[in-house]
Fold each of these.
Amino acid sequence: MQEDERRSTTLMGDSPSLPPKGSNNGMNKSDPNLAASFPSSDEEFNNRSSNVSGYDLNRMSGEASPMAMSPWNQASPFQPSPWFTTGIDNSNDQKTGTQVNQSEGLVGSLVREEGHIYSLAATGDLLYTGSDSKNVRVWRNLKEFTAFKSNSGLVKAIILSGDRIFTGHQDGKVRVWKKNKKDPKNHKRVGTFPTLFDILKSSMRPKNYVEVKRKTTALWIKHCDAISSLSIDEDEGLLYSGSWDRTFKVWKTSNSKCLESVKAHEDAVNSVVSTKSGLVFTGSADGSVKVWKREGSGKSMKHNHVETLLNQECAVTALAVSETGLFVYCGLSDGLVNYWEWEKELAHGGLLKGHKLAVLCLSSAGSLLFSGSADKTICVWKKEGNMHNCLSVLTGHTGPVKCLAVEREAEKGSGEAKWVVYSGSLDKSVKVWNVSEKMSPEMKMGSSENIVRY
């Protein structure tokens, strides 16, 4: 009972020090009490210090990037992954691939021994998964539907827009794929951001080179480290890419042009989220969350820094904006989730404390917020007014939960909002959950789990 009470606690008073409204520098330090420390013996987790940047232009993008030494990133090739799992054979259904019908809780698992799961995207009954295997796999009804190979290594981010799929990679490039209308299993690469033509054209002009570190220059249209996050503004036709090179870039999806590159933080950009209002939020390993406002269009477009919501020592690992746009959420490496309220001019609303280790991913759907963590659990939070309560805790992964995707379940006449939640983990599995807004306090992996292995 004490554990359940601890997980459902919403701390409203211990908020970090925020910059005064109208201030652009936002350099006020937060309450040091927020930088909670946790035992390093639990899965060898250590909070990452953001005072010293791990950024180095001279290394290859596949080598040690700013957070590569953390336990939720790729394990050393010289050691077995600490998150390796072979699955649990506790149901005869898994032998036939039959889906278990469950109204709530864990539906099944997708396991393929080819790498940790780093990115997910869902649309309708299709699920796209990205890993460190060079493959993007597509699943339908707990079965592999198709796959396509990127030839570029680790797939860090996936985002869907109509019949196009955008993938962000360890090599700093965004690749664009398109489904064949006649054969939906066939995916063809139709573009790369930036294009080879744009790179060659830009390289002819010295003014297109910018200093990235220690008098070393690079083309401003290229990311010089891994892409960590993607966000799309479909109304404006803009794609945003956040990178470990400390920048975010703005792309025109119709012609693959890079419209702007913004030096956003002093360390890796771990998350970027765009909104329909023209505001863009970025979170970084330097411990800050910044707000940018888009002004102008085309070549004259510019994103101006208007506010810093948070500035402290713990790395910002994930961001999310609620469907209504009324709440902005931020996951931290100390296991806390901060949130801000739009109706109160982005005033700090409080803290959500439900994880023992770092929050690695966030996803918002309806009145629910899902937070995945290095402690291997997923907390389901429900908004009621400006309060948040922990509705349930999803358990079953044997490794850190690295990514989440949520889709609304087909209406069945009940009138109650239900969701299909996909969670990708460093245990090399994707778990599928049915979640409603009235769940039991804790949903554990039951004996009827359907594990699909390939």
Amino acid sequence: MAATTENLPQLKSAVDGLTEMSENERSGFINLVSRYLSGEAQHIEWSKIQTPTDEIVVPYDKMAPVSEDVSEIKNLLDKLVVLKLNGGLGTTMGCTGPKSVIEVRDGLTFLDLIVIQIENLNNKYGCKVPLVLMNSFNTHDDTQKIVEKYTNSNVDIHTFNQSKYPRVVADEFVPWPSKGKTDKDGWYPPGHGDVFPSLMNSGKLDAFLSQGKEYVFVANSDNLGAIVDLTILKHLIQNKNEYCMEVTPKTLADVKGGTLISYEGKVQLLEIAQVPDEHVNEFKSIEKFKIFNTNNLWVNLKAIKKLVEADALKMEIIPNPKEVDGVKVLQLETAAGAAIRFFDNAIGVNVPRSRFLPVKATSDLLLVQSDLYTLVDGFVTRNSARTNPSNPSIELGPEFKKVSNFLSRFKSIPSIVELDSLKVSGDVSFGSSVVLKGKVTVTAKSGAKLEIPNGAVVENKDINGPEDL
């Protein structure tokens, strides 16, 4: 049976009995569930969707550059807080603990690179840009231990936890922990839309306002391209934009990403889940919807405070049904990008693809560990020797899924500056100093091992055995 608002009193009394939840978490959770049950989802009328103008989605190269004047730059940076979303675990890549501690390059983790970048800014301009990590209950304990290693760095590091909500048992519509599921699996973090109330409830937001901070730059901790950008920051301060979402041109790999639209005079995020079935192909087309959300967001701190206090951030609810230990559960989530329509003078900025370099799988790790990128001062920069503006497409089989397996299959990461695509399946390993060019597929026959020898140069080849080398 489908749950209705009649289920609410029973749920509410069960939640009141969950001592692990704070008052803020209880009210936030009940608020989310009652919005879900009342079916208040915004209905998008397809015919009203308009493509945003350059005033609403500003081309990055039309923004005024920042002068080299050190005092102007310091003045900008003194208004900034950097916040990284650090709630995710590295489980999909076969790692334990927070994803941000996976080694990306030269023995440095995501978190190391972020701290080095901000430390360089603070040292160079004599400013004090703080780093804030939003953890989930899954990553909090590990992160607290990990950040101790940065005690002597020139970066103030703050952490806070996003909310912890109970999973709901679908058929009875009661919180799973109330039915005796007391371990971590009974709970979930409700998506990164929770960043705004949680930042406020942690007390950090008021503390930053009292220090004269004005904007927070929010980004996923696994996006290596999400570095502080003074051009964007200056534009927002000058134009009093309360919210800015960085978008970038779609490629065929990004067809499912959310896009910005103009709708009834407001800019808003359109996600694939909101699209009527008959328009899904149109949504995925690169012709009509040319940009997608990178989840690099710049938000005015006073505006966050005002909207959270007014309980005005009613982002679209993303129902996420799961089966855990044989029990069908429901978790309700929200996304930070969907908040754009509640802020005044909100804009998108169409940024270069270089600001979107997420590492979601070992295939991404191959790209960033290769000669396609160089690492300078904590910044991962693309090798100018590559003439093709897009990255090679990389498909690695399940044998490469875990980071440890991935690393054991490469004596060294191949040169891929001239590679268009690579597809690897089966029990394949690579020797050192291998060069891959053009279109390469490597397929080990079932039950056979296949090794690409040291120093091999492979160009536009299908390799199915040693005889093809």
Amino acid sequence: MLSRSSFTSLVVGVFAVYVAHTCWVMYGIVYTRPCPAAGGGGGGAGCVWPYLARRPRLQLSVYTTTRSNIGAESNIDLVLNVEDFDIEAKFERTVNVSVPKKTRNNGTLYAYIFLHHAGILPWHDSKQVHIVSPLTTYMVPKPEEINLLTGESATQQIEAEKQTSALDEPVSHWRSRLTLNVMVEDFVFDGSSLPADVHRYMKMVQLGKTVHYLPILFIDQLSNRVKDLMVINRSTTELPLTVSYDKISLGKLRFWIHMQDAVYSLQQFGFSEKDADEVKGIFVDTNLYFLALTFFVAAFHLLFDFLAFKNDISFWKKKRSMIGMSTKAVLWRCFSTVVIFLFLLDEQTSLLVLIPAGIGAVIELWKVKKALKMTIKWQGLRPKIQFGTYNDSEKKTEEYDTQAMKYLSYLLYPLCIGGAGYSLLNVKYKSWYSWLINSFVNGVYAFGFLFMLPQLFVNYKMKSVAHLPWKAFTYKVQGATRD
């Protein structure tokens, strides 16, 4: 049987190996070995050269169609044409896109992006590259919020379709942003060891005795956020589309491909569009260097959270007496955790957040069972709950705890009731249940720190802090310091 120190050392050792392995994998992603023969003679045999090094005149064309495959220029609409396209110049343009009847009836619309030689139609250019991206996605619309007292809607216009359709039925949503990238580095690849992630985006041509790869065109799907989605209804004939372009380096391109594949894998495992959006936000809204720093901070935070969790469970598992411990503080932590979990559930939060919150709520319920000395006995299918007895020292602790809670209630209850009344008058909610949960969670976030006072009052009266879980507190402080 491993001792506690040995187990902690094992966890720290596994953590160090994990961090080192992650750094090595990330280095392998962002660093690509160039062709060794590129700098020597012989024309660089076995190398794949960049076509962009020839500095061709290029043109960018964006078309829309309801078909996932096109063979000619029929049944497609040109929505953006950039002549003399400069791959080094960043731009952003907003265009209006006609929405076909098929798309308005819960159908799909695709964008075809072509990068081809200037003055030549893309289907007549043998050296064109193109990529396809859906401009629509399916998602359950967010329930409408109203003022519970007046019944006033949050939106002034309510389409007839929304009144009759079920809220849990996915409908077509418009992706209002299309982010394009071209890899601009004049990088010479080794033909015998092409990176698999980039290879599927490469199109190669034979020019004389050398092989060249055409410009690598990439669509940044991580920039497609839920906040940019717009519901498509039958009366919509045009929708705005913001097309933005920026150059990208080879290292960032490979990193972005891996991140998009990871998000796609999550969706294949059953994660919804909203769940995937939480992951996208980590990468899109953060600078890459700051993201690397965030990874290391988060890794250490995870380590200290695990050690705090382990020591907290160990402390309460061996706890037999509540001397010096505030039962009211334990009950409040349990109530707070459960309320936050119900709030996240009501807001349809990502599973990445919801599952840990649910586990935390179950653990806090277990602590309440230990604090109240509850035992559950089953009489057939009916549970019978029994409470243990307190000794004199525990009764003295409970007396101090009740006294502190009495003083605290004079301040806390009016503030919570006042906040709930204000939100009822001024904020719109989906239902009365939603208002109740939001009122509770606002009280938890705003005044939760006040519930440390009963434990502090007990410590003051008993002139001792020896009964607290200090190891768990230490690891929690270490994690908070890194935040």
Amino acid sequence: MENETVPSYFYFTLFKGYENVRILYFLLTITAYLVIILFNVSIILVVFKDKSLHEPMYLLMSCLFVNSLYGSSALFPRLSADLLSTTHTISRSACFTQIFVIYTYAISEYTVLTVMAYDRYVAICEPLQYHNIMTQRRISVLILSAFSWSIFWMSLVIYFSIRLPLCGNQIHRLYCSNWSVVRLSCVSTLSNNILGFFVTVTTVFLPAAFILFTYMRILLVCRKSTAEFRGKALQTCLPHIINFVTYSIATFSDIALSRFEPGQIINAIALIISLEFIVIPPLLNPLIYGLNLPDIRRKILSMMISLKVALSP
């Protein structure tokens, strides 16, 4: 229990050694953030403005884009400032706020993907009952539950983490992560580990299992259907499948990374793995859905043409 402290700030160690290229990384970070805002906001506006797209699939898709903007806001502005700074420190309150936002984003990504999988399951396996099951009220409840689930669990995680006495203030990442703070504890973290395991199972593995189950059922239905039906089913499910697979790989990589001690993995690899689940989905999701769904693609092209005409002299 010696050297027990409650540090007023934390120090990010992964910035060390990149001083000569920090301007380049700053420009890349700002560019990525602006692209994320442009892509995600564009599709949200398309869905919001066009009443023909006010269907459960497109509303859930918009929730995914809103979540991407929410999660990105916790990383990119702070990361940009740190790249121009020479101190690379963050206050205790800001650190725990960043943990809360980033990981509510991460959990919400899975819960929204789970609701989307349920929507596709009902649409393909119970097409005649689709509008009776996926009512506006039910969609609202499912969306609210998806985001409330992440807020509840992360509030509990933060409560357990913020009470720990810490014997250090160095975080081996570019942002605050819960496990990076917990491992600085001066006392046993058994309760935190048990809670973390339970949260991971209920927010990652159970949703992933449910999504896989829905697609197994969809595959069974498609095997007994016509080629035209299979083509339409694949067209609506493919973006979700790509999104689920890429996000799962990024999430499981981050979970695996958190189990290693600082210094056991090369800094550049640790840096890439730790950023995957926050950077890749917000960048890829709009492209995946925008390019694969004909209705969205047509509306975006129509909006671009209208904008070009409006700006032309």
